[in-house]
Amino acid sequence: MKANVEKKTRNRCHRPFASMLVAAVLVASGSGVQAQAPDAKAILKSMSDYVGSQQTIRLTFDSDIEVITPELEKIQFTNSGELLLSRPDRLRAHRVGGYADVALVFDGKLASIYGKNMNGYVQFDAPGSVDQLIAALRSGHGVALPGADLLQSNAYDILVAGVQEAKHIGRGVIDGRECEHLAFRNADTDWQLWVEAGKHPIPCKMVITSKTVNGAPQYTLRIKSWETGIKPAAADFTFVPPRGATQIKPEALIELDELPQGAPTGVQP
Question: What pLDDT digit, counting tens, does each position of 43-62 carry?
Fold first, then answer.
């Protein structure tokens, strides 16, 4: 009698396990039960279209940037900031880190960059759009702005250029928001993007990994808050030099970097 009870108990215990095993095999074998995975580029395109259609955007963010020392030690530097964008040609941004407190103001004609830690500012003519300003800062002044591509009007074309492989990893949660987790591979970098699921596909997090650098340092951007439909005032994009601030040469922009002077070079994403 006891043996029969034990046998029945074992059978009842094994049936759920066997059912789960069969289900796992069916999913793994792609037997038609599994739904087709979303397309990573299609999700990226929906994000780009949505963000590009917003006339005004206000957001806050945190960012981390890693460097690899000559001793192969990985060190991470952190920053926080806020940004106000009014398309096509107005931008105000502020970033604070341990080594620089920097504000950028652009009114469609003149770009002003102020470094509070040095109480100095740079100004240069930049007639055109915010997209053109980003290109000018990168090519003419050596400012990387790795997360700025997410906000450009043609973000999709810029982001997919050079992509060799795109994957939809699955779902993830960033600050309580359910997100589509995407992964892309380029020749020199791997990058990941988390896009909020649903009707408002905003970017929530981005990670860029430099594959060609020993130690594979990463740049991480996390968007904390996001607001659209704002009606900014003209004064929001007007730069007034603080009392005692001096105008400095554009070459001094290097001193307003996210990294401290003397940090190892050539290791940023």
Answer: 999 999 999 999 999 999 99
The answer, yes or no, to whether the previous bond of 16 is cis (omega within 30 of 0) is no
For residue 264, what is the DSSP state? P
pLDDT tens-digit readout, 157-191: 999 999 999 999 999 999 999 999 999 999 999 99
Which residues have C-beta within 8 Å of that of residue 267, sequence separation ≥ 6?
Answer: 66, 67, 68, 210, 213, 215, 217
Tell me the residue type at 218: Q
Long-range contacts of 100-104 (CB under 8 A, 24+ apart): 100/255, 100/256, 100/257, 100/258, 102/256
Distances (CA, A) of 95 to 60, 102, 103, 115, 226: 10, 5, 6, 10, 16
Which strands sit side by side in the sheet containing 203-210, from one edge to the other? Answer: 165-174, 177-185, 189-196, 203-210, 218-228, 56-68, 74-86, 90-97, 101-106, 110-115, 120-125, 246-247
Residue 94, beta-bridge partner list: 82, 103
